[in-house]
Write a structure and sequence with these properties.
Strand content: 15-25%
Largest sheet: 6 strands, mixed, barrel
Shape: elongated
Number of helices: 14
Number of strands: 12
Oligomer: single chain
Length: 417
Amino acid sequence: MIFDNIKIALRSMLSNRLRTFLTVLGIMIGIAGIIIVYSAGEGIRSLLLAQMESFGTNIVQIEIKVPTTKKGGAGNAQSSMALASGVQVTSLKLKDLADVKKLSNIGKGYGAIMTQDKVSYGSEVHKVFVMGVSAEYLDVDSSKIATGNFFSDDDDKSLATVVILGSKIKDQLFADSDAIGKYISFHGQKFKVIGVMAKKGAVMSLDFDSFVYVPLQTLQKKVMGIDHVSYFTVKLIDNKRSADTAEQVRALLRQNHGISNPERDDFRVSTMDDLMNTLNTVMSALTWLLLAIIIISLLVGGVGILNIMYVVVSERTSEIGLRKAVGATYNNIMMQFLIEAAVISLLGALAGVVFGVIISWLIYVGANAAGLEWTFVIPLQAFIVSLLFSLFCGMFFGVYPARKAAALDPVEALRKE
């Protein structure tokens, strides 16, 4: 009986192809949206993971944070508000970094602070990010030197006016000529170029190839007039102990800063595991938000099924009356029209999956052509959700017309002839 009803449904759909196509189109667009959302979500996740991993998977980052002022308050929100109003946290010092590096599971580490300023060479003037870092920067970060040398710990301690150029700013200032040994002007002082960084590209929307690097203490004392840093990045010896090590860092910094209440922390300690968990939470929330929007389009497609089933019932009233007159039961008629609604939904789902996969692949090709580390993945969950929602739409919006058809009086239905 089920196969007979499927044949009847297909015959009915083929008898009015345009109407069927328009009905299927609504479901198809919604299902394609589900496939695209899941695929794009995986692509964005892979892109962000690749960028995060470019910093290293075995690192701990310690950054400044405005402490919570009210019990139960949100530190992040208050940090944003305080920074927006001009509040600065100046508690992270190089002594903190030296103490953190004494922990048993901590290896190399560097401190960093950043500002913006103009650098010039001859007639070329450019506004750039100037990053002051410790000498162990290259031992922790994934950046590399292309030509020349990075500055030493002695350069940092002696406040040497030396500079490393990002590859892009080097080209802007010196074009094809060699920059090593030449002097650029920065903050009213002359800085000797001792190295050029290898190309790194943009990471988390920051174009590191346009950065200028100077010794941390040179930037602190000779340019900014400060003695604090914005953050430390340290390398773990054993990545499996990251959570325990992060707690040791917190305990040490609380002791250094005289903090007894964790809510008053003026720093934030993050491991790569913490960042990964945050990324997964954000991506899951974003996926569900987009799915909620797409469900609306599926509901619109479901209303299309409701409309076409009403039309089908009215067009086939006499057929229904004849079937009931020769013995078809209420359940037989219900099953016939529910199967017809389900077939429409499944055809829309199939077309939507194919269309969604094609669009997802085109996004992947375009992203890779733009130099993004994008992966083409469609998780099994996408197909399961698509199937379930398409069946739900077909059955939910098809049940009322089916009940109306099944409840027809055979005598009255035959008079419609």
